[in-house]
Amino acid sequence: METLVLDTNIVSYLMRGHSFAERYRPHLIGKRLAVSFMTVAEMYEGAYRGGWDENKIAALEQELKKYLVIPYSAKIARSWGVIRAERRIQPISTDDAWIAAAAVAYNCPLVTHNPNDFRGISNLRIITELQPNI
Q1: pLDDT at 24 > cutoff 90
Q2: What is the mean pLDDT of residues 77-98?
Q3: What is the DSSP annotation of 29-96?
Q4: In this structure, how many other beta carbons lie within 10 angstroms of the beta carbon of residue 118?
Q5: Is the pLDDT of residue 133 over 90?
Q6: If you ran DSSP here, which 8-state letter would residue 24 be given?
Q7: Contact present, 127 and 5 (Cβ < 8 Å)
Q8: Phi first, then psi: what are they for 66, rounded to 5°?
Q9: The whole model's pTM is what?
Q10: Which CA distances in Å does 129 have to 26, 27, 49, 121?
Q11: Dist CA 132 CA 53 (whole Å)
């Protein structure tokens, strides 16, 4: 079974039932869905910035149990270093670099609605329903 790494925006769309979730659902059927440890951190950041109460945070934690969480590893750190070096002329955020590194390190496509954030990363396969700006 193919594993897909989901960007934070895709997890958020799915969790909120956003209309964009329906665009991505066909790509996800029959696949193992994974998220980087960084996506988990970003989801918590959004919850705390949004002033979520403990019930909403508990719902977030239940939602995150649906995904295989890719933890930090030396393999991912090495991939992160390569990505940040490749993108030094066109900087990539630290968070996005960790998400991309998880996908690259384990040779999994990355599903994102922000393909431009990940443009120019060697060995990264992107699945998107948004056409990148060229």
Answers
A1: yes
A2: 95
A3: TTSEEEEEHHHHHHHHHHHHHTT--HHHHHHHHHHHTTSEEE---HHHHHHHHHHHHHTSSS---HHH
A4: 23
A5: no
A6: H
A7: no
A8: -75, -15
A9: 0.92
A10: 11, 10, 28, 18
A11: 36
Q: In whole angstroms, what is the distance from residue 127 CA to residue 134 CA?
A: 16
pLDDT band at 77 (very low <50, low <70, confident <90, very high): very high
Q: Where are the domains of the chain?
A: 3-127
Stated as kind and residue range, the H or E segment containing 128 is none
Q: Is the dihedral of CA 32, 37, 38, 40 positive or negative?
A: positive
The C-alpha atoms of residue 13 and residue 30 are separated, in whole angstroms, by: 19
In 3-state terms, what secondary structure has residue 19?
helix
3-127 CATH: 3.40.50.1010
For residue 88, count CB atoms less than 10 angstroms from its CB and return exposed for 0-12, middle for 13-18, buried for 19 or more. exposed
| Mean pLDDT calculated for residue range 112-130 | 94
Alpha-carbon distance of 39 to 11, in angstroms, equals 8
